[in-house]
Design goal:
MetI-like fold, two-stranded antiparallel ribbon
């Protein structure tokens, strides 16, 4: 087993850790890159925008998400199972689709265009309604906060709900004998799930701070956007990567420390297996059941269904004054399926499927190896924290640097064709593995941690090989969770933009990147139809995840 663990550690080091460390290596070799910090006014603007974006997103998504998690996971709310399914489906809607949906609803030509306000990154300014109608909806920090908050709500509900489902029933029963039900929720249930709620807040913060698919369209400059600014300022790629590393290193180090602290705390507070098998103690809503049900339905319809439905309306919008036509929508949908768009979508789906399987397999092996080795588990946590904390563009630049070094060392024509000249899916597959490996580990680790040690001990007493142990013990127990992790990574890969656009080879762009490029020109019928098509496919993948989760709950 030690040999297997060393082999896996070398694999993770070479394919994941080295690209993540490449920007820091270039920074160490170019001390002049630190001079970028001399531009104090611009750094203050970036810091202000990033902090406002994070704080605003957390202020909107956390209270709503935690309250919704309590209602959906711990009460007798009517229709809670349906809304939990809807939450799981929307979990995998890529950020470009959320942005396009709200643009189609509130932007120029949308259902409810918002005139009279343009909140730019340099400060809010009042403009005339005529001018505002010609600008993309909500350019500025307010619009970016809103979209990130809506996209973060499913994550908060899922993570907080999972923590609320792990609270020991005995603690709540004892507390109910001493205090009212609502005090039990405030003083026992929520504090006991505090690690999961903190993990949800950290996840939302990292996703918000490291993505550019929203801020770029809304013209908000953050530390993640600064990567591109520094590249433009440098005459060579390596100099630009070094300057970008210097500009984002303090944030990355702080995020790594926070990820490590929260992960350690969450792991220590994971319940024993017996707690997971104990039925939950529901909180009765009484006369408030149906009012809360209407409130949850209205909130879900406003925040999720309306912008997504606006894409369908925009795909079939035609005429003056504009009206919806099913014939027009199906015309653009057929056009989206035909080459070259249809071929690009097919390739992206195949790539996402392969990425899901490979990343989930690697995460399964990592979780299996980490169960009995504290050192391997600590290294795995550091790797996950670095992959989560680094901005997507910086990860893409790190991989691009490694590819350049690899090609210069080997001078292999085959590698040059596969990793640089293309068309080839390998760079996109590699970047998906780096970015979403932590997500797969996070899905698999709670189940892997609760595997009975008696089974593996008995197998080793009978002289079972590691392959036999993996095949006959680990796989039967974790196969359902593996499928959930693979589907999650596959659907997330469909929406990856910030890193993939930097490493994609000519002739092989991702479908999400092409959508992201078109978003800068407004939501046309063609773009809306392509978003609808991708949305249907994402919903199918999310339904698969929901079915697997339902089967796991039945077990």
């Amino acid at each position: 087993m030690i040999r297997w663990r060393l082999t896996l550690a070398a694999l993770l080091l070479g394919f994941l850790a080295v690209p993540l460390a490449a920007p820091l290596g270039l920074l160490a070799g170019d001390p002049s890159a630190w001079l970028s910090w001399a531009e104090a006014p611009r750094w203050l603007t970036l810091a202000r925008n990033t902090c406002l974006l994070l704080l605003g997103t957390l202020a909107v998504s956390m209270p709503l998400g935690v309250a919704a998690a309590v209602l959906l996971y711990r009460t007798d709310l009517p229709g809670r199972h349906l809304w939990r399914l809807v939450t799981l489906l929307t979990l995998f809607v890529p950020l470009p689709l959320f942005t396009s949906g709200w643009q189609a609803m509130l932007g120029s030509g949308g259902w409810l265009p918002l005139p009279g306000w343009s909140d730019t990154a340099q400060g809010g300014t009042r403009v005339s309604p005529v001018i505002a109608q010609w600008t993309p909806w909500g350019q500025g920090i307010g619009s970016a906060i809103w979209i990130h908050s809506v996209a973060a709500l499913p994550w908060v509900i899922l993570l907080a709900g999972q923590g609320l489902s792990w609270v020991e029933r005995e603690l709540e029963e004892d507390a109910r004998m001493l205090m009212p039900t609502w005090l039990v929720l405030l003083r026992v249930t929520l504090p006991r799930a505090g690690a999961a709620i903190g993990a949800a807040a950290l996840w939302v913060s990292l996703q918000t701070a490291t993505e550019i698919s929203v801020t770029d369209v809304m013209q908000v400059r953050t530390f993640a956007e600064e990567v591109y600014t520094q590249i433009v300022g440098g005459p060579e790629l390596e100099e630009g990567v070094a300057r970008a590393s210097a500009s984002t290193l303090p944030f990355v180090l702080l995020a790594i420390v926070m990820v490590g602290v929260v992960a350690r705390r969450w792991e220590r507070r994971l319940p024993p297996r017996a707690t997971l098998l104990t039925p939950l103690l529901p909180f009765r809503l009484g006369l408030w059941r149906w009012p809360f049900a209407l409130l949850v339905g209205g909130l879900a319809g406003t925040l999720l269904a309306v912008p997504l439905a606006s894409l369908f309306w925009r795909a079939g919008r035609v005429g003056t004054p504009p009206h919806w036509s099913a014939e027009t929508m199906f015309l653009y949908l057929r056009q989206a399926i035909r080459p070259p768009d249809g071929l690009m979508l097919r390739d992206s789906l195949l790539l996402a499927g392969v990425a899901g399987l490979l990343v989930a397999a690697l995460a399964l092996l990592a979780c299996w190896a980490a169960r009995e080795s504290r050192g391997f588990r600590s290294g795995l946590l550091v790797l996950m924290a670095a992959a989560w904390a680094m901005p997507g563009p910086l990860i893409g630049l790190g991989l691009k640097t490694i590819i350049d070094r690899l090609l210069s060392l080997t001078e292999s024509r085959w590698l040059a064709q596969a990793l640089y000249h293309g068309p080839s899916p390998l760079p996109l597959l590699w970047i998906d593995a780096i970015r979403f490996f932590p997500c797969a580990v996070a899905v698999l680790w709670p189940a892997a941690r609760l595997m009975p040690a008696e089974l593996t001990d008995a197998a080793r007493v009978d002289c079972a090989t590691p392959i036999q142990e993996l095949r006959h013990i680990v796989w039967p127990i974790l196969s359902s969770v593996f499928a959930r992790a693979a589907l999650a990574v596959a659907v997330l890969s469909l929406g990856e933009v910030s890193a993939g656009k930097l490493v994609a080879t000519p002739g092989m762009p991702s479908y999400a990147t092409d959508i992201f490029t078109q978003m800068h020109y407004g939501v046309t019928n063609e773009l809306a139809a392509r978003c609808v098509l991708l949305l249907v496919l994402v919903a199918a993948g999310g339904a698969g995840v929901a079915v697997i989760g339902w089967r796991l709950e039945k077990k």
